[in-house]
């Protein structure tokens, strides 16, 4: 008897383009969301988009609540849950980078409330996904969370954000190549659940972005358009898979470990990009695909070395040798790299000197 089933949760409205921030109230109205929103944001995105959105709600006769969080932690999720309960809101709106959006989607999941995603930076592919990624002591959880009902991505806002946030988003997408290699390996060796469609979409997204790398340039709003479409597509791949596997392999474990060892040193996307160079080397050997990953990152001005990340060489080695412990996710790192092997991959790929 055939007993398989799947449940893919995707946004209903994805609105991307110049000036669409002004359409937030209309988008919410189209979803028939009633009552007060809680705008979940962080300091810079609050002034860039949180306050203007709040003003638009007020002009429409709706009184929004607003809460700012500083870090992607379970304490922040709790702060948002308490604010939502105290303010008696009906739905949440994550306005910001990956941090604010992750916290809003996780709090929404707990509160069983709808959630909309308003990115202020094209820096990560959690804009659309139904996952939240949160550190917790020695581990990093990738938890199921509420997917957004709507995404409103204003390319004018995204293009105004610091350029390195956009290159971080590109690198998060380019890392799909190695994430999918790890996923296929885990399917072959450990029989993990695998979706051909999600893997193909994640890879194709990276490929289209790399093919369009010439158009990704600072000061061009079209760059924000190209990168945001890729981030949406990659998030959809995660939602199809029901896990972050299509977009998160060993290069993400490496980045998550760097977050613990050198907090705040570099952006998530930049760290996974550098991780991807090294894990591609492990997948393909010296003459392999890692060179293409490195030149793709180079072509969009993303870091390719520890020095460019602002992280010292020894921290890179420590992260490489310990990051398999971050979570139970089988990757090319297997049950861990020894120090000599880590030094060799980091040196041969030029990540450390
Ligand atoms: N759930 C998922 O599927 C995924 C989740 N992630 C998660 O997302 C996070 C990474 O996202 P990222 O966006 O890099 O991190 P942050 O949300 O920390 O944003 C990075 C920085 O950009 C600033 N910023 C955001 N928007 C603007 C703007 N318009 N102008 C100026 N500065 C701005 C933030 O300011 P401020 O400090 O004021 O907030 C912050 O300093 C990680 O926690 C990662 O795990 C990443 C990919 C997928
Ligand atoms: O960053 C991600 C995809 O780009 C997802 O990270 P996690 O695997 O920690 O959920
Ligand atoms: Zn990522």
TrEMBL record:
Its main location: cytoplasm. InterPro entries: G1P_dehydrogenase_arc, G1PDH, Glycerol_DH. One of its GO terms (cellular component) is cytoplasm. It is found in: Cytoplasm. It catalyses: sn-glycerol 1-phosphate + NAD(+) = dihydroxyacetone phosphate + NADH + H(+); sn-glycerol 1-phosphate + NADP(+) = dihydroxyacetone phosphate + NADPH + H(+). Zn(2+) binds at residues 172, 252, 268. NAD(+) binds at residues 98-102, 120-123, 129. Its EC number is 1.1.1.261. Binds 1 zinc ion per subunit. Its cofactor is Zn(2+). Glycerol binds at residues 125, 172, 252, 268. It comes from the Archaea. Pathway: Membrane lipid metabolism; glycerophospholipid metabolism. GO terms for molecular function: glycerol-1-phosphate dehydrogenase [NAD(P)+] activity; metal ion binding. One of its GO terms (biological process) is glycerophospholipid metabolic process. Substrate binds at residues 125, 172, 256. Keywords: Cytoplasm, Lipid biosynthesis, Lipid metabolism, Metal-binding, NAD, NADP, Oxidoreductase, Phospholipid biosynthesis, Phospholipid metabolism, Zinc. The keyword Cytoplasm applies. Belongs to the glycerol-1-phosphate dehydrogenase family. Catalyzes the NAD(P)H-dependent reduction of dihydroxyacetonephosphate (DHAP or glycerone phosphate) to glycerol 1-phosphate (G1P). The G1P thus generated is used as the glycerophosphate backbone of phospholipids in the cellular membranes of Archaea. This is Glycerol-1-phosphate dehydrogenase [NAD(P)+]. It comes from Natrarchaeobaculum sulfurireducens.
